[in-house]
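Before the break, one more example. Copy the sequence into your notebook; we will annotate it together after we see the structure.
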Amino acid sequence: MRLDHTSDLWWKNAIVYCVDVETFLDSDGDGIGDFRGLIRQIDYLAGLGITCLWLMPFYPSPNRDDGYDITDYYGVDPRLGNLGEFVELVRTANDRGIKVIIDLVVNHTSDEHPWFEAARADRGSPFRDYYVWRDAPSEQPAGLAFPDKERSNWAKDDTSGQYYLHRFYHFQPDLNVANPAVQDEIHRVVGFWLQLGVAGFRMDAVPFLLETEGIEEIVEDDPHTFLRNLRSFATRRRGETMLLGEVNAELKALSRFFGDEEGDQLNALFAFMLNQHLWLSLARQDAEPLESVIRTLPTAPPDNSWATFLRNHDELSLDKLTEPQRKEVFKAFGPRRDMQVYGHGLRRRAATMLGGDGPRLRMAWSLLLSLPGTPVIFMGDEIGMGENLSIPDRLSVRVPMQWSDARNGGFSQAPAKQLVRPVRSGRFGPKHVNVAAQRRDDDSLLNFLERLIRRRKESPEFGWGSSTLIETAAPQLFAHRCEWQGSMVAAVHNLSSRTARATLDLGVQKGQRVEVDDLLETRRHRPNPDGTLDVELGGYGYMWLGIRRQGERPLS
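Here is what the structure looks like once it is written out:
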């Protein structure tokens, strides 16, 4: 008998959907998406099977960095709505069984934030030490977030006559998180939004947040103590709070962000290393890069999780690959310079890179949803939307949602020139790719993903279980099995266009008689007497299997 797996560790088997409110649905015809528009489509998300809604920044902002330059952590950008409508969204989503998490962007503020304005105006201000100042630029901390836009981590402030530290754009001064007063401010922000009903936070740029390089004063505490204290504070306020960290760090550093053996820091980490090697495997049509990184990834503590994704809302970062590996992925999925960004990333969506709705794209989605961890879907990818390369930098993938083939893709009734971002045209535009048409088509990508998500939610072994790679003689096959509470599932995916055959070790004891159900099709497979299973998959084929002792009730 399975134990309850829907308790305060809800993220272990969640389906997360990332939304940019301003590009989702415009309810009032001003060309900008808003909370009322999002509320109107909550039932659409519930029907898809989403259990967690992640909101990208919606705070007041000058919008020089798509809302990541924040001027008020306690408010809502008036273009998008107000706090009352935010609370209505949370209530409506919760009513449909969907939790809401929000972006927590506290590595930096906007240079128009009242804290920074007070700090620059008066060196004696209590807000002065909320930021990091120098009379002259010192050595550069490692890494510039946007090397094509910024040349230094230090910017001159003419008002105060000193330089301030920034690791992103120069109009985003870094907060001094080593300052206890700043930590208290962050706790207050977290407590405020928890009180309004959110279930957690996606923490932006966590390694930069904890970086103490550039701070001259002695920092006595381990920077990770801040994460540990924040986690403790948040769970005291709401026991089921999830902290999901954007941690694109070197392999040897990743486990520190989970914390100790009990996982007392971040509940979940985005699996950037896994994602980058997944795309290398897709480029090579060979499972070895993906298998190799899985063997070396640290194991998440029992109550923690990796957050897996096919594409996110940013560039497809390939910075942890070697230069030759990166060139392979560029050649396969973004050969033109205008498809690349920052020298180490791609600014394309999954559908355009994988040839649109077809066997290869569907195989990739099946692979993502069967990987151990918590799957994250970026808005519009469920229908196979494409990027708009006419929009600069990372914003090329943050295009308006395509609801129908009507004007502006059904996103807004405003004139096209008033839209917050232009709607794409062509093969991946709303005339050919939209929600309304796919809802009516049983064989559409949208309905395929809805069925796949339903099966994933019915197979908690993928989210909760321990995972084991299954070795095969076919290099293009990626196979693994997951075990949890005496139950076992397996999945096998053909990353190539060529037919592949293999014999799978089902992980059963010798002499144990098992039955193997196909979890995606209405058929049963006959295992060999030695507990193995012979499989044959056509190009970009895939298979999910439920493995049970003979006589046990099927999983469905």
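Residues 153 and 407 are 43 Å apart (CA to CA). The longest strand covers residues 477-484. Try to locate both features in your own notes.
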